[in-house]
Write a sequence for this structure.
């Protein structure tokens, strides 16, 4: 049985993630107390439920008493033949405050004496064991629901692969570096197409921008050195039981240099590094290969 545990801060998108898994055919349960996991998987492995091989559960801060036994609980699941993987959803405090201001939902750790900001901070502390045990952390601060669904789908499907997916992600530093990246490279030292008026509204996917960047020796040197660096060091990352190795490449706005370099490196690694995916965070464009 494959089990995905979806956890994270309230307001970070756990419901969206669970719905995405349901669409993939997972048997999904929302807000399951952690202490009931072993009982649930045992029931599903018996009797008429033997055809259920993929299960996803959402666990939040209301299971805080059971989270104290997280390590032993996961070991018991493994001993019972259940492959348990944890994906943890994160978001910045200010973004969570904004999201709660736009809804009537109540934060689970607030009451008459606990304001929202304090509840969010307390929840971070409560969920630390799950965050530390997570195979992947996804920062949804600047994600659209569509992007989150794609990320969850890719995470789930990664369980079926024998080698980790190499995910190349472009981003703009003005919106912050992605928190779930394994390694980050800064491309702001390269010539910037933004300052060419005719290229400003285009992206690194457009041929005029590609031609501009490929006219620079610095761009070719950077691409070659990044290829060599990643090709050498990828084998030294701790990728046991992981589905992803995320390489993030950033420029100022996340539209030109980083997008071009992600596309270029992805093409070069597809033949030699197994599964490769592309994500352009600040173009709100996702591509898979």
């Amino acid at each position: 049985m494959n089990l995905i545990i979806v956890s994270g801060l309230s307001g970070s998108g756990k419901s969206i993630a669970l719905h995405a898994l349901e669409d993939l055919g997972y048997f999904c349960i929302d807000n399951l107390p952690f202490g009931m996991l072993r009982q649930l998987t045992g029931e599903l492995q018996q009797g008429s439920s033997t055809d259920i091989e993929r299960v996803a559960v959402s666990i939040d801060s209301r299971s805080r008493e059971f989270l104290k036994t997280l390590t032993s609980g996961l070991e018991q699941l493994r001993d019972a033949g259940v492959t348990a993987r944890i994906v943890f959803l994160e978001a910045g405090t200010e973004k969570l405050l904004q999201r709660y201001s736009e809804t009537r939902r109540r934060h689970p750790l607030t009451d008459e004496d606990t304001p929202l900001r304090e509840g969010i901070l307390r929840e971070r502390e409560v969920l630390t064991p799950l965050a530390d045990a997570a195979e992947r952390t996804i920062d949804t601060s600047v994600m659209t629901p569509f992007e989150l669904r794609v990320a969850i789908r890719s995470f789930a499907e990664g369980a079926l692969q024998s080698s980790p997916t190499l995910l190349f992600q472009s981003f703009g530093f003005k919106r912050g570096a992605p928190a779930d990246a394994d390694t980050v490279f800064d491309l702001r030292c390269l010539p910037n197409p933004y300052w060419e008026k005719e290229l400003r509204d285009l992206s690194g996917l457009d041929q005029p921008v590609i031609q501009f960047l490929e006219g620079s020796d610095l761009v070719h040197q950077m691409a070659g050195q990044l290829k060599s660096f990643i090709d050498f060091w990828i084998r030294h990352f701790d990728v046991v039981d992981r589905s992803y190795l995320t390489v993030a490449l950033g420029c100022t706005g996340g539209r030109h240099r980083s997008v071009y370099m992600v596309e270029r490196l992805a093409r070069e690694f597809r033949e030699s590094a197994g599964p490769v995916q592309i994500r352009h965070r600040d173009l709100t464009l996702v591509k898979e290969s």
Notes: Confidence is low (pLDDT under 50) at residues 285-289. The first helix runs from residue 14 to 23. The chain has two domains: 2-160, 165-288. Residues 165-288 form one domain.
